Amino acid sequence: MHDPTELAIKKMIEASQRMLRINNQGVEGREGGGISPAMNRHLELEIETLQYAPRDADKLRQLLKLKQRQREEAIHIEHTERLVTEIEMLEVVLYLVMRSKNEDMTPRKLFCLPPPPTAAAAADEWKFL
Fold first, then answer.
1. How far is CA 44 from CA 23, 38, 85, in A?
2. How far is it, in rounded angstroms, from Cα 120 to Cα 129?
3. How many domains does the chain have?
4. What pLDDT was estimated at residue 100?
5. How many CA atoms does the CB half-sphere of 3 hold within 13 Å?
6. At what angle do helices 4-25 and 37-52 cross, to 10 degrees?
7. Percent of the chain scored above 70 by pLDDT?
8. Range of the structural domain that residue 100 is part of
9. What does the alpha-carbon distance between residue 39 and residue 47 come to, in Å, rounded to a whole number?
10. In the prediction, which pLDDT does 88 show?
11. Positive or negative, the Cα torsion across 32, 35, 38, 42?
12. Does 117 reside within a domain?
């Protein structure tokens, strides 16, 4: 029996690898081949992130928080682009892991959001508006 999470991740990796292969072979009649060097780096980072991402939901959440914090503090666009790609792929893996374990996949739980305010706290906020 195959793990559906690993199967989905494998298919995503294969799709990115296929795009890289097509680009490296070049496209007939076009100068310079297919996709840009930036897209090449993006696909390579997607593959690497998918391959090495933890398969544990708690570890993924911790890693996502770390990467999100690093993205907020990033100064150079190259770092931001790399972190955005990593975060996107980690969120996909987290979704797949949680789906396979039938865990709560509400956006609040999935993307590590703080709990909603209580009714009393929400009422207090409305008093000041």
1. 12, 10, 10
2. 15
3. 1
4. 84
5. 11
6. 160
7. 71
8. 4-111
9. 12
10. 95
11. negative
12. no
Residue 77 has pLDDT above 50, yes or no: yes
Instruction: With respect to residue 106, please indicate whether it lies within any of the assigned structural domains.
Output: yes
Residues 6+ apart with CB under 8 A from 49: 85, 86, 89, 90
Q: Is residue 16 part of a domain?
A: yes
Q: What is the pLDDT of residues 6-55, one digit of tens each?
A: 999 999 999 999 989 887 776 544 555 677 888 899 999 999 999 999 99
Q: What is the pTM of this model?
A: 0.72
Token representation of residue 102: 């039938």
List the structure tokens of 9. 């991740």
- Give yes or no for a contact between 17 and 67, defined as CB atoms under 8 angstroms apart: no
Q: Is residue 116 assigned to a domain?
A: no
